[in-house]
Design goal:
With 72 residues, the chain is α+β, with helices and mostly antiparallel strands. Helices cover 29% and strands 32% of the residues. A hairpin with a 6-residue loop joins strand 4 (43-48) and strand 5 (55-59).
Length: 72
């Protein structure tokens, strides 16, 4: 079963649009976005792969999945 979202190193785009809490939204290289995610101790999660560049969010992915399952 393939995961619903690409996270961290699984993101293939060279540039991403970064959104999230405690971050100024903008377009970053994948390497820069991963560095920011590591500094904040969260995951880089691709939430819209069809956008150009893909939209990624800085979140705790395990907590996000837990909240999704709880809602269902």
């Amino acid at each position: 079963m393939e995961p619903e979202h690409r996270i961290n190193d699984k993101i293939t785009a060279t540039e991403v649009r970064l959104v999230g809490d405690n971050i100024e939204s903008g377009v970053f290289t994948r390497a820069e976005a991963l560095r920011i995610a590591q500094e904040q101790e969260v995951d880089l999660v691709e939430i819209s792969s069809n956008a150009v560049p893909p939209v990624c969010r800085l979140i705790d992915y395990k907590k996000f999945l837990y909240d999704q399952k709880k809602k269902q």
